[in-house]
Amino acid sequence: MVAMVALMMAAGAFALLLAPEPAEVAAQRPMPTSPRPETPPGSGAPAEAPPGAGSGAQAATPPPAVVATDPAGTAGSPPAGTPAAAQDTPEAVAERYFTAWRAGDFAAMAGLVADPPADFADRHRRFSADLGVTSLTLTPGAMARPAADAAEVPFHGVREVTGIGAWEFDSALRLTPAGGGWRVRWSPETLHPALKDGGSLRLRRTEERRPANLTREGKPFPADSRAGDYFTGLDGRTTRLALEEQPSGKVLLSSPEPPAGTRTTIAARVQAAAAKAVDAAGRPAAIVALDTGSGQIRAVADTLGGRRAFNGLYPPGSSFKVVTAAALLGAGLGPDAQVGCPASYTLPNGRTFTNDGGADRGTVSLTMAFAHSCNTTFARQAYERLAGDRLRAEAADRFGFREKPGLAYCRIRPATTPDELGSDAIGQNSVQASPLCMAEVAAAVASGTWRPATLAETPPAGSVPPVPLDGGVAAALRDMMRAVVTGGTAAQAGLPDGTAGKTGTAEVSGAASHAWFIGYRKSLAFAVFVQNGGSGPKVAAPIAARFLRAL
């Protein structure tokens, strides 16, 4: 037993002799890695070479070009467990800076900048707010090392600007050794090259007219065109945006050109003249002007409201004598035929017709009776030559006074008595027309062919076909309408040379008469209408003169 105890004690003593000291145990444990000292400037090598440096390997793939967020606020932090030496290489700092920038983490960005300005974060926020930037995409390129103490990463950026779109730019992120590692050498041009040397950028806003409909020249309608009931969006406006460098004013990017409006047949100069003439009327009025060869509407200025220049129905008064004269000429009465123009005339067993102001001109040619607008002449001649619906047929078949597709409204009913026929002959009773319809009548005389008015370059499908007038009738009507201006009821209106036309004073029950003047000059036919304006020669014809002289 004693021998066994002695043996155990000897084994324990031997084990104690083999056990290491505590300090020796500590030395055998792995030691934490301490930061590697920064390579002194000029040593020819950075603290940590970029991936693949000196081995022919390609540069590391840049971070994905996406806009990101960093709710945890870790955008500028290195991955957990990254050795401290790797955290401060220029490559690592640049990558962390771009990651933080994408995330909008300005605090993390500032922490990677050597001596950041106090308003670093505010500068970035103001830049985006002032220029309407909604997102930013960054794509870094390969790092360059121009010197041992300098690094530079070129990068391509795309900012999305509200109202303009993608705004691309190229800049560079510069880095320098600082604080025992590497830091970004930030300057304003890091945000954009235009900010170098005190430059700035501004978003210029310019409001422009951008109507939905344009004149035939591709221009906006004249201001106060009086055509708003006929064309939509004439007052449409848009705001154009432009990013400009300051102080040079160079435009870096501008908003896309808005879609062009639709061109109409309206001529800007004619429309402006018509609008000003209508405004001068001082009463609800309208002027419609047509191209005599095509029927295209060149102007419509309307203060009547409700598109009544096209669809309003008014007695045309003596301006309708153009149609009556065409029927009489077609019935064989020549322009030089002698006819009576007494102060009054009574139809057999019927109504008495009188001339304006009780004028008695005795016996005159049909042309002069037309020029002086003799009611008595036209009532009698219609009774004697146009019985049996001939006047209505002439109006309907050759001048569009019937139900038909198209823009203009006008009508005449069959006369059932001589009194009705006499009244129809001077544009009263059942005869009703819109200003557009009477402009079509004037255009038919000028061109020798009646055409439906149109707002299209070519007549729409289903349009009424043109109706040619008899050549002799059209020529006689042109002479008769010139006589109205040179020596008849419109001689004192101040109309320019070359104008031909016909005045009209249409009686209205219980109200003042409507004033009319229809005519043409060169390739433009027109109708002037002043609602309850009174005398055609004294009111409508001078307005026509104002309109024509403005062209």
TrEMBL record:
Where does the NTF2-like N-terminal transpeptidase domain start and stop, copy by copy?
89-198
GO CC term, one of those recorded: plasma membrane
Report keywords, A-Z. Signal
InterPro entries linked to this entry: Beta-lactam/transpept (IPR050515), Beta-lactam/transpept-like (IPR012338), MecA_N (IPR007887), NTF2-like_dom_sf (IPR032710), PCN-bd_Tpept (IPR001460)
Return the Low complexity bias intervals. 41-86
Region (Disordered) residue spans: 26-90, 207-228
Please name the GO terms of the biological process aspect recorded for this protein, alphabetically. cell wall organization; response to antibiotic
| Pfam families for this protein | MecA_N (PF05223), Transpeptidase (PF00905)
Signal peptide residues are 1-15
Stored Gene3D superfamilies? DD-peptidase/beta-lactamase superfamily (3.40.710.10), NTF2-like, domain 1 (3.10.450.100)
Q: Where is the Penicillin-binding protein transpeptidase domain?
A: 286-548
SUPFAM superfamilies, per the entry: beta-lactamase/transpeptidase-like, NTF2-like
Annotated GO molecular function terms are: penicillin binding; peptidoglycan L,D-transpeptidase activity
Keyword Signal belongs to the record = yes
Compositional bias, Basic and acidic residues, is annotated for 207-219
The protein, known as: Cell division protein FtsI
Organism, by scientific name, is Sphaerisporangium rufum
The lineage, from the top, is: Bacteria, Bacillati, Actinomycetota, Actinomycetes, Streptosporangiales
